Fibronectin type-III domain-containing protein (Acrocarpospora corrugata), 556 residues
Amino acid sequence: MLMVLLRVIASFVLLLPPIPSTEIGQLLGVPAYFAPATWSRLTGPSIAVANPVSGPGRTVDAELAAAMSAAHERGVTVLGYVTTGYLGRTGRVTRFGESDAAAWLTQTQQEIAAWYRLYGDHGLTGIFLDEVADDCPSAAGYRDLRTFTRRYDPAARLAANPGTGVPECFSDAADVLVSFEGDLAGYRTWQPPQWQLTQDPRRFWHLVHDAPDPTQAINLGKQRNAGYMYVTPDVLANPWDTLPDDTYLTTEKAKATAPDTLPPARPGPPEATTREATTLSLRWPASPDAIAYEIYVDGQHTADTLAGTPTIDLTSLKPGRLYGIRTRARDHAGNLSPFSYPARLATIPCPGLRPTRPEALTASQVRPSGLRLTWRPSSDARAYDIYRDGLLISSTPGTAAAIGALTPATPYTFTVVARNDAGGSSGPDLTVTTAPAGRDPITDPDGTIGPDAVVYQASFGVPFDIHQVLLDLDGDETTGLPVLGLGADHLVESGWLFRHQGPGWTWTPLAPVDLAVSDDRHVWRVPRTAYPQVSPHRAVFRGSTPDAYSEVITVE
């Protein structure tokens, strides 16, 4: 399947002056972390991020699937939420208990694959990556994730949230970057890096909460070159769990529009300046008002330039293939030109040979919810694609991968394909049955207060999507979240300690914690500095979904 990635030659990027605020037309980009029924109020063109269980989960949520499909029909670009765990830089571990960047990229690929397996026929248009590592060495991994995503859909959109102050090396790591997320008070004084003021506004997305009226934030966003905005009066701990009322939302959309409605002139037809086996370098006569160009390959919108320079490299093409390519210009207001006249351009045939077959595919560390695959390397292989029951789930340059989110006592058939530009060669299939689930969902809960850390640990015998420890630190069952006779005023989940803010399931992050996972036993180490006055307290472990709880224990 065609994959197209964008790489604009850095030396040709125009250094444009900041755009006057009234000229920029904005679209809404909504973290739609609310009930599926609320999705009926979302209209396009806009972005909405779906997030059923901090990721796709393991089964289709029928109500969410229907809401996504309907939103897509209304012109909404629907993205599926996936966390990348900062690629392990903060100590976060994968489901398999690993914390290196390669393990996190492998798990992220499997989450992307799950989104397309579960919701690919329900309006899914791309992926939203959260908890993104913002250092330059990590940028290449995120470019690879976009390549991987476009193997499912050549026109897939990839958004990423690396936070404020992201360096320019991330400019082409995703189609859209969330470059601000915070409250209106912080947004008033924040300024983007200079490089973000000179590129296509539709590459930047600002999220602003605790704003009683959206007008000021929208105006500031235009001054700061944000082509996507979302402003809400909602507040922490989770400002994205509601959608503003109709009056607020109507005002927000009206302020986001631009007065300019005149489309830019049609650009000239593209021509190839360089042709390789998997790459075409293109240029075309410019459109005078263009801030960026959209590139269409065989009728699909597959790439955009970073700015108004009419050049681009299309990569990850197939050798020896003829493509139909058109461009169209977009101005600051978001107006689109007519399409350029099409060009028929071909890559050159690949002169090399396919890699040899990968052999000795083996499964080890077989658990109820996962296993590890290893195989012998092939000669001349650039990467190895891993298929589960015939569906692509991961691609790696190495010869091992941890496979997660499996169902207990279930047979799976795995295939590894070695590939390079000349093609692929598959090794023999391997069928493995996962271990049965434990008799009890959560067993052997324990907790101890040590001199440097408070340690909580339990074994989860069911492949839950979420693993938590609910803590009653103040010993008052009338405060916090009521659960099994205790008042949970603190929560440990993944690599963080949270404090209950109420009402209901509302939590504020306090401090990172260390999490280690081995053979489905989860061990959290909360530093004493996170709550230095801690004393003996009660705790309960929770898994979801489906919901299950351990017995209540006393930690001392």
Observations:
- Residues 101-119 form the longest helix (19 residues).
